[in-house]
Design a protein that fits this description.
Elements lengths: L2 H34 L4 H23 L10 H17 L9 E5 L6 E6 L18 E6 L6 H13 L7 E7 L1 H10 L9 E7 L7 H13 L6 H8 L3 H5 L13 E8 L7 H6 L14 E6 L10 H11 L1
Helix pairs in contact: 1-2, 1-7, 4-5, 6-7
């Protein structure tokens, strides 16, 4: 992945940030000048000329970040795609991640376990898990695209796996559980071979933080001083927007379904556990009709590599 493309994008985004700060500045100063009235017109003209020149110079300087040798590591690209991946895909940017089987374990057995990471992550978030009797397929995908688009892409990827496969299971973390659920609803031939779907901290009914940001954007649009902040929040990707409502595509009737939830408190019934969940997803949203496993005293990201999670996965998939 060319580092110049990442640097160019960084310069553009930083320049846009300076313009947003300038918009807030002009909204506040404009309200002051309107309050003072016609007497302030000469001062306002001088102020606006100097301010516009200053912000233009700052934006130009920040745009020079395009020349920086920024590191296009997978983790950096994963986070970037989570934020604006839909824009990157639509523009044909070389920074847009394509759905791919980034890592496949050996030997290639007839039982395939597909690992689907969450928002802003890559396959590296899982470490190197392996469950006996299964070939692991770790996907990497653009988490900024809509869940329905990624679900369709995942369905095509699984269908294209090129060895004799008798059994398929899918494990998804957070958004990954929604993408896996969407893929299974695509009615592709491989879904008849799905034995299990398992979601870890997946917001099937939506995530509170995504819902809060949605409402905050609406509030911030009500005043010119805060409208630039609303515009910034409004740029969140299609994938992030989908997390507000979650996904309730019908579950496969021919497969078993496992749901793992977590709470920051050891007792899930504790008030803090009911209010905070795993810090990003509430237990009720992470649950569904199937096998349930509640893990106390941990948080959302810890589910990716928690030993008790892998003990439960092995028990369900044995």
């Amino acid at each position: 992945m060319p580092r110049t493309a990442l640097g160019r994008l960084a310069g553009t985004e930083l320049a846009g940030l300076s313009r947003g700060i300038g918009d807030v500045h002009f909204a506040i100063s404009g309200r002051v000048f309107r309050t003072v009235g016609p007497a302030a017109l000469p001062v306002r003209a001088l102020h606006d000329a100097i301010a516009r020149g200053t912000y233009a110079a700052v934006a130009g300087g920040l745009r020079s970040a395009a020349l920086l040798p920024l590191n296009a590591r997978p983790e950096v690209l994963g986070a970037l795609n989570g934020l604006i991946g839909d824009e990157l895909h639509a523009s044909g940017s070389p920074l847009a991640i394509e759905m791919t089987a980034a890592r496949i374990s050996e030997p290639r057995l007839p039982a395939v376990l597909v690992w689907v990471h969450g928002l802003g992550e890559t396959e590296h978030a899982w470490g190197h898990p392996h469950l006996p009797g299964w070939t692991s397929v770790h996907v990497r995908y653009n988490t900024g695209r809509s869940i329905a688009e990624n679900g369709a892409e995942l369905a095509r990827l699984i269908e294209a796996l090129d060895w004799d496969i008798e059994r398929v299971a899918l494990v998804g973390h957070s958004m990954g559980g929604l993408v896996a659920r969407s893929a299974c609803a695509c009615d592709a031939p491989w879904t008849a071979r799905v034995s299990h779907t398992i979601s870890l901290g997946t917001p099937h009914d939506g995530a509170p933080l995504a819902q809060l940001v949605h409402h905050l954007e609406s509030v911030l649009r009500s005043a010119p001083e805060t409208r630039p902040f609303a515009q910034f929040l409004g740029r969140r990707s299609a994938g992030i927007r989908d997390l507000r409502r979650g996904v309730r595509d019908p579950l496969l009737t021919t497969a078993r379904h496992g749901f793992i939830s977590a709470t920051v408190t050891r007792d899930a019934r504790h008030l803090a556990g009911r209010v905070l969940g795993d810090t990003l997803v509430l237990s009720a949203s992470a649950s569904g009709e199937g096998d349930l496993f509640a893990l106390g005293g941990t948080h959302h990201l810890a589910l990716l590599n928690h030993p008790k999670v892998y003990e439960q996965l092995e028990a369900w998939l044995a």
